[in-house]
Amino acid sequence: MAKQCHHCGRTWDVSRQPGRQETCEGCGSDWRVCLNCAHYDPRVAQQCRERRAEPVMEKDRANYCEWFELGNNTHAGRSGGGDARAEAAREQFNKLFGD
Questions:
Q1: How far is CA 64 from CA 13, 21, 28, 44, in A?
Q2: Which of 18, 19, 31, 43 lies at a C-alpha separation of 20 to 30 Å from 90?
Q3: How far is 92 from 72, CA to CA, in rounded Å?
Q4: Can you give 35-85 as a three-state secondary structure string?
């Protein structure tokens, strides 16, 4: 699997880890973000499998996490379909509260 931008799917072709101020050439999103990290997991507490990491509120913004490791991920695309279960749950929630 390739190391890809969480937003547009552009591949990270450099052998080193991205710096905090580096941005994707495809979309301008920050590279060093939780959504690009190997430890990111939306199913666990604070969405991070690294227990020693400080909580980060904005998962799509550059941060100073010392445990960051660019992960091999599959491009999810924020503007794409996303997770079907999450979308279905969101729809049910909106129906329940009339939104």
A1: 22, 10, 18, 20
A2: 31
A3: 32
A4: HHECCECCCCHHHECCCCCCCCCCCCCCCCCCCCCECCCCCCCCCCCCCHH
What's the DSSP call for residue 19?
A: P
Which three-class secondary structure state does DSSP give residue 90?
Answer: helix
Residue 35 clears pLDDT 90, i.e. is over it: yes
C-beta of residue 7 within 8 angstroms of C-beta of residue 73: no
- 47 pLDDT tier (thresholds 50, 70, 90): very high
Give residue 42's Cα distance to chain centre.
Answer: 9
Gap between the Cα atoms of 78 and 75, Å rounded: 9
Amino acid, single-letter form, for residue 56 = V
Q: Which amino acid is at 18?
A: P
Give Cα separations from 98 to 18, 22, 39, 57 (angstroms): 43, 42, 36, 28
